Amino acid sequence: MECFRALSEGQRKTISAQNERINNLQAYSHTLRETAVLEERSRFSTRIHDRLGHGISGSILLLEGAKLNLQKNPEQAEKSLETAIENLHGSVDSIREALHEERPKRGAASSAELKEMLQRFSVEYGIKTSFSAEGEHERITSQIWSCIKENLTETLTNTVKHSNASEFHLKIRVYDKIIRAEFSDNGTNSNGFSKGMGLEGIEDRTALCGGKCLFQCGVSGFKTINIFGVEYDKGFDSGR
User: Fold this and answer.
1) 179 vs 237: CA distance, rounded Å
2) For residue range 106-139, what is the model confidence (pLDDT) as tens digits?
């Protein structure tokens, strides 16, 4: 009896230590994201200030001078106005250039978000995850990225609820005419399945993007495959 008590106590301590580790990892990940966001905002603010500060300040001085010279020296006032207008146009162009340079590519941003979701899932449930993507990500519309994200959320939930998988993989491939997203796990409880609301929701979201959905199950695990047309570019409402 004492042996069982000691074993139970040891398991309790192990579980407690694992939970604490998970909490620490989650807190660390959250801190890293916050720090990265703050650093990015600070850097971008500094860049905008440096590009605009001198141009706008100089334009204000020119406009004030033009106002004073409007009656006494109209020619000089006109020159000041022209220079101020030119400076302001340059400042606007500078803002546009900065925004264009700073804006992340849609594919890179969306891929990063999916990777973060998978990493967080791995930490929370102890299931190994991987993500791979090939092809021109810029050909994937924001609507399809949103669909893939929501379908990932659903497939991860299904993996926890219905599979004893130890691994989960997401593969995205962009071909000449189609986009293929494959969600797969290596669960051994995948022999036979019935469609519930989760799988029907995946089908509906994929269809709203003009795509098709396939499900495959067997001894190697369970796969959900989404296939979209590359040229699809219509808006949709996911309903969530």
Assistant:
1) 20
2) 566 688 889 989 999 998 899 999 999 999 888 8
The conformation of residue 209, written as its DSSP 8-state character, comes to T
DSSP calls for 120-153: HHHHHH--EEEEEEES-GGGS-HHHHHHHHHHHH
Cα–chain center distance at 99: 19
- The domain total for the chain is 2
Global pTM reads: 0.57
User: How far apart (Å, rounded) are the C-alpha atoms in residues 210 and 142?
Assistant: 14
Tokens standing for residue 231? 């040229």
In a domain, 235, yes or no: no
What's the longest Cα–Cα distance across the chain?
105
The domain containing residue 72 runs over which residues?
1-103
- Alpha-carbon distance of 127 to 137, in angstroms, equals 27
- Which domain-ending residue is among 52, 84, 103? 103
Beta strand residue intervals within the chain, DSSP E: 128-134, 167-174, 178-185, 212-218, 221-229
Q: What percent of the chain has pLDDT over 70?
A: 68
Separation between Cα atoms, residue 213 and residue 232, nearest integer Å: 16
- Inter-residue long-range contacts of 108-114, CB under 8 Å, 24+ positions, other chains counted: 108/137, 110/137, 110/140, 110/142, 110/145, 110/148, 110/149, 111/137, 111/172, 113/149, 114/148, 114/149, 114/152, 114/170
Whether residues 118 and 85 share a domain: the answer is: no
